[in-house]
């Protein structure tokens, strides 16, 4: 979830939320990194499903 969305849910502005994150040693909000990892996992799962379909039909 993007930082702006999370800050809004907590009823804070993004600047205050960033300061709070830094206080708890979160230097950067990891939204993009996590989204990239999720995409890689989805691609690997799709590849596994595709290869298992090929093996069962052969």
Write the topology of this structure.
Elements: H1 3-9, H2 14-23, H3 31-57
Keywords: Coiled coil, DNA-binding, Nucleus, Transcription, Transcription regulation
Function: Putative transcription factor.
Domain RWP-RK: 1-58
Give a written overview of the molecule.
- The protein is mostly helical and 58 residues long.
- It has one domain (3-57).
- It has three helices and no strands.
- Helix 1 (3-9) crosses helix 2.
- The mean pLDDT is 89.
Low-pLDDT stretches are none
What number of structural domains do the residues give?
1
Described by the principal axes of the CA atoms, the overall outline is rod-shaped
Radius of gyration: 19 Å
Mean pLDDT: 89
**What is the string of SSEs from the N terminus onward?**
HHH
Which percent band covers the strand fraction? under 5%
Biggest sheet overview: none
Instruction: Give the N-to-C terminal Cα separation.
Output: 42 Å
* Helical fraction: over 70%
What's the β-strand tally?
0
């Amino acid at each position: 979830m993007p930082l702006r969305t999370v800050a809004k849910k907590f009823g804070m502005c993004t600047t205050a939320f960033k300061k709070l994150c830094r206080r708890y040693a979160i230097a950067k909000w990891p939204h993009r990194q996590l989204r990239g990892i999720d995409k890689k996992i989805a691609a690997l799962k799709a590849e596994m499903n595709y290869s298992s379909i090929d093996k069962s039909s052969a």
